[in-house]
Amino acid sequence: MTAAEPTARAGRRRGLTFPGLLLTPGVALLAVLSVLPFLALVAMSLSRVRLLGGVRLEWVGLDNWVRVLTDVDMWWSWVRTGAYLVLTLGIEMVLGLAVALALHRVLRGRGILLSLVLLPMFVAPVIVGLLGRYLTDSTFGLYAWFLQQLGWEGDVLGSPGTAFAAVVLMDVWEWTPLITLIALAGLTSVNPSLLEAAALDGAGYWAGLRHVVLPSISGILLVALLIRAMDAVRYYDIISVTTNGGPADATKTIPIRLFENAFRFFDLGYAAAIGLMMLLLTIAIARAFVRLLGTRGIS
Amino acid sequence: MTAPALAPGTRDDSARAPAAPGGARAALHGRSTGSRVAVAVVLAATLLWTLVPLVWMVLGSFKSQADVTSAVPRLVFAPTFENYRNLFTGANDLTPYLWHSVVAAVVSALLSVVVGTLAGYGLSRSVMRHKDRLSFWIISTRMAPIAAVILPLFLMFRVAGLIDTLPGLVLAYMTFNLPFAIWLMSAFFSEVPPSIEESALVAGCTRWQAFRHVILPLSKAGLVTTFVLCLVFSWNDYAFATVFAGPDSQTLPIAASQLVTQTGIDWGQLTAIGTIVVLPMVVAGLAVRRWLVTGLTLGAVTGE
């Protein structure tokens, strides 16, 4: 597969084309890393998984699925996950767009401002969570101290409502920059003469935003939303190191529940059923994403 | 910008633009005082919200035990390197964890980029019947919930004896880095017009030579961006490492989270680890800022 490929053009007629040849190792490796685990996951969801004395799967049919689907606590976790997704994505979209609009109007020094705004994206989510704990600690946290100056005393991560708000805000802190980055790329690509035309028509700022700017970047915003949605389903690090589902299950989202079932109760079959349900959800989002790319004529 | 007569001085002569508060000029590039103040306020608030936690973390890493947990926040303090020194000396020396982090992140990123570049080029240039399905499968692999991937890998790794080994961790990271690299490199290669390698072929190159000496040098930015993002994803991983890493393969994020559970929390050391984990990724990430949009949207949006 190295430079010893002088007959590549002849090879085209022999079945495997040059692109196909390059594609093969990657696809084969990916198949091992994804198809095998997928089949294993399906098998696990239909079994009781024994770990002691060698890994064994004992067939239990749909038992795990029945338990997952009839567990009221699980349904509450889905509701909580839904609320978490809607809140984080909603806040991130609004704030991200607002910051992008503001940055777009800065002509000098936009680069350095953007770099500063992007910093949270590179912070490991565990560190975001731990830093959040440090900042909200009721005895020495900086943000807790501010809240005390404003008259609010209490443990942010200790009570259900504020703990949920805190993990949402930590996600917002880390990922709003991604929306800003994508929205800004969209704004830069809007034809300036379109804006001039809107201005000459006497359109005010908000009217221009609603009728000219938003429609022209709506596709890009949708891409941002879908990517963020898939990632929000993926990650669980922040909640895991801050509240780990507590207090009183207030932040027990689906991924937290999966980890708890798998690696604390070692009920891996049950966890596998949850995992497959999560997978279905992301595949649905990914399908929308790819369809969107198709209609935009990219890829 | 092609009709300067219609739109004089809207973009660059900000200082001389006629002050027309709330007037027609206000649409998005408006220069009225009110809108300038609004922009300044939004940006100032954004910078505060973004930077305060990071600055506080870095400051904390240079504080003594008493300063880092003082009830009233201290901005003025006697800086100390004690936290960093403690991280790399004594019983819980971080050096091996740092080494594991570097090896797992760099090796998985490198392997993913090499295999992903070949496959990405193949994907972008191949003409096949179910190409869209293949693409969809690749992207859905990347986006699969980490939790759903970890469960079966845990069993497979246990059977294969890969738990608590660096090769196991590298393989685990490739479950998300490889599909990412294939997809993204394919997007970068699609930007290179096929006519370029066609002319190379006419000039007597083999397909491999055309790829290696003509297309690849044109895609340097894509290669570097893909590598950096793969590096960031695996360096920052926590979920996989909690399940697959043990004493022999512990990474920095795990070491950080373990400072929490052992006999109280040493926030001085914790902020120091945080700084060590964050700094290299910030530098690497900002180095490819121009291509970040393309990279993080998996090629769906191109910037600048």
From TrEMBL, chain A:
Record bears the keyword Cell membrane: yes
Membrane-spanning segments: 21-46, 83-103, 112-135, 178-200, 212-230, 268-290
Segments forming domain ABC transmembrane type-1: 78-289
Superkingdom of origin: Bacteria
Record's keyword terms, sorted: Cell membrane, Membrane, Transmembrane, Transmembrane helix, Transport
Keyword NADP annotated: no
Pfam families to which the protein is assigned, alphabetical: BPD_transp_1
Membrane topology: Multi-pass membrane protein
Major location (coarse): membrane
Annotated localization: Cell membrane
UniProt record similarity statement: Belongs to the binding-protein-dependent transport system permease family.
UniProt name for this protein: Sugar ABC transporter permease
Native source species: Pseudonocardia zijingensis
Taxonomic placement: Bacteria, Bacillati, Actinomycetota, Actinomycetes, Pseudonocardiales
From TrEMBL, chain B:
A Pfam family reported for this protein in Swiss-Prot or TrEMBL: BPD_transp_1
Top-rank taxon: Bacteria
SUPFAM superfamilies xrefs: MetI-like
Protein name: Carbohydrate ABC transporter permease
Skewed-composition ranges (Low complexity): 16-27
Keywords: Cell membrane, Membrane, Sugar transport, Transmembrane, Transmembrane helix, Transport
Cross-referenced InterPro entries: BP-dep_ABC_trans_perm (IPR050901), MetI-like (IPR000515), MetI-like_sf (IPR035906)
Transmembrane segments: 37-59, 97-122, 134-157, 169-189, 210-235, 267-288
UniProt keyword Cell membrane, yes or no: yes
Localization in the cell: Cell membrane
Similarity comment: Belongs to the binding-protein-dependent transport system permease family. MalFG subfamily.
Membrane topology term: Multi-pass membrane protein
ABC transmembrane type-1 domain boundaries: 98-288
Keyword field contains Transmembrane helix: yes
Gene3D superfamilies: MetI-like
Annotated segments matching region Disordered: 1-28
Organism name: Pseudonocardia zijingensis
